[in-house]
Design a protein that fits this description.
The structure is a single chain. This protein has a two-stranded antiparallel sheet. Helix 5 packs antiparallel against helix 6. 75% of the residues lie in helices and 1% in strands. The two termini are 12 Å apart. The chain folds into two domains: 387 residues, MFS general substrate transporter like domains (Growth Hormone, Chain: A, Up-down Bundle); 54 residues. The protein is an all-alpha fold and 477 residues long. The protein contains 19 helices and two strands.
Length: 477
């Protein structure tokens, strides 16, 4: 069996090797915290959206949705180029630079006085998150102790996944002081991560691939997803036949064709289309996208429902969703046990989890009423949904990445995260379109239609998950 140093070739590692060997759990905690922070900002603003609207002087849900979607779109589009740059110039450098940009942009977002200024700083936050996220996972993959790579990867992904279900709780607590704390909270944790990573983490780069990634392809992807979201979000107000909506959707289609053409021809594309020849990788990406689209739609719709119909405060709304992360955390542990100890295929675990999550969404349709009925309505819904999502999401994303070669690690993991972020944009945009111009004040029947669409997305994820099976052993590095 090759030694650990031999297994990490042809990587170049500089400094900190002894730290990885001596304190791998601490370093993993730092990198997982960074993953949590980067993806937390996709979700933490959901519960504070009404407070943000009051603070920046905007009550339009279609405008405020860009506070969420602007971050997710830029984050998704730049993940892969950022992963390529981290492979070329060093993952530690990419991590430190990304965290620095993220912290600075968080301060700018907190000081914003208008909705579009806030959207700009949210986009800059996403640039930082896109740099630090694939770099952090690349550092985990190349520095984890031999024999523990899969476990470390699963912990890293679970930390990022937990951000989605913990975001509303944290957001509800923070907006009690001010909506600006939704962004200020990133600063101390980000600075701590920079200080610890600079001291403890060893660097790694793949020197044999010195080519510049396709940055224009990243811009094309931003245009595609942004135009699609714009068309869907604005359709209820402008009308589906309006020239602006038709143009937005046409730009999305043409841009997608151009993006795929460029990806097929460029030497270092944003999306390496050859990876999708792997059935497991392709299916896991699609399943993850559908799962997060469902989750994003359910999360925002339940928040709007409880605040606009049940007149819950932000903190009460955030705490009302607490059964979700509890169920998710418990199920994520069970998911790993089912696959590792009982050798149940990841696809089967994910399919069962998606079915359970779909049942939880159906309960929203059947149990929620205009009069508040949290214990008999929202509580069991969130508990069941969180448990199902905890089984499903970690199973598919870890299956897509564990078997990647080292030189594909940062890029492949970035594609998976990119897919899930695009899913959140699609889910939120579809929700805004279903609720229409009434926004959060839409009727119960309209919300039920939205939840049925959300359930259909999760059910589709379950069907796709059946094509995912356990990855082969991690190839030598």
């Amino acid at each position: 069996m090759p030694s650990h140093d031999q297994m990490t070739l042809p990587l170049t590692q500089q400094g900190g090797e002894d730290s990885w060997k001596a304190r791998p759990a601490l370093i993993l905690a730092v990198l997982a915290m960074a993953s949590f922070l980067g993806q937390l900002d996709v979700w933490i603003t959901n519960v504070g959206l009404p407070n943000i609207g009051q603070g920046v002087g905007s009550a339009s849900l279609s405008d405020l949705s860009w506070v969420l979607n602007g971050y997710a779109i830029v984050f998704a589009a730049l993940l892969v180029p950022a992963g390529r740059l981290a492979d070329r110039f060093g993952r530690k450098n990419g991590f430190l630079l990304g965290m620095g940009v993220f912290v600075a942009a968080s301060l700018g977002a907190a000081l914003s006085g208008g909705v579009w200024v806030l959207v700009v700083f949210r986009a800059l936050q996403a640039v930082g998150a896109a740099l630090l996220t694939p770099a952090s996972l690349g550092l985990v993959l190349t520095g984890a102790p031999a024999g523990k790579v899969e476990r470390y990867v699963r912990i890293w992904f679970t930390a990022g996944s937990l951000s989605g279900v913990c975001g509303p709780v944290f957001g509800g607590l923070l907006v009690q002081a001010s909506w600006r704390w939704l962004f200020l909270v990133n600063i101390p944790f980000g600075l701590l991560a920079i200080a610890l990573a600079a001291r403890l983490v060893s660097d790694a780069r793949h020197e044999q691939d010195a080519r510049v990634p396709d940055l224009l392809g990243g811009v094309l992807l931003i245009v595609v997803v942004g135009a699609l979201a714009l068309g869907i979000v604005k359709a209820p107000g402008w009308g589906w036949s309006d020239t602006r909506v038709v143009t937005s959707l046409a730009v999305a289609v043409v841009g997608l064709v151009a993006f795929l053409f460029r990806s097929a021809r460029h030497r270092v594309p944003v999306v390496d289309l050859s990876l999708f020849r792997d059935r497991i990788f392709a299916s896991a990406n699609l399943a993850g996208m559908l799962q997060v689209a469902s989750f994003g739609s359910l999360l925002l719709s339940s928040i709007l429902w409880m605040q606009d119909h049940w007149h819950y405060s932000a903190i009460r709304t955030g705490c009302a969703g607490l059964p979700g992360p509890v169920g998710f955390a418990a199920a994520a542990t069970i998911s790993e046990t089912l696959q590792r100890r009982f050798r149940i295929p990841a696809g089967a675990v994910a399919a069962v989890g998606s079915a359970i999550a779909s049942a939880g969404i159906l309960l929203f349709v059947l149990l929620l009423h205009d009069d508040p009925n949290y214990l008999s309505g929202a509580f069991p819904c969130w508990l069941l949904f969180g448990f199902g999502a905890g089984l499903a999401l970690p199973a598919v994303v870890s299956s897509a990445t564990v078997g990647l070669r080292p030189e594909e690690a940062a890029t492949g993991s970035a594609i998976v995260t990119m897919s899930t972020q695009i899913g959140s944009v699609v889910g939120i945009s579809v929700l805004v379109a279903v609720l229409g111009t009434a926004s959060g004040g839409a009727s119960l029947d309209t919300y039920r239609h939205a939840w049925l669409v959300t359930m259909a997305l999760m059910a589709a994820a379950g069907v796709v998950s059946l094509a995912v099976s356990q990855k082969r052993a991690v190839p030598p590095r």
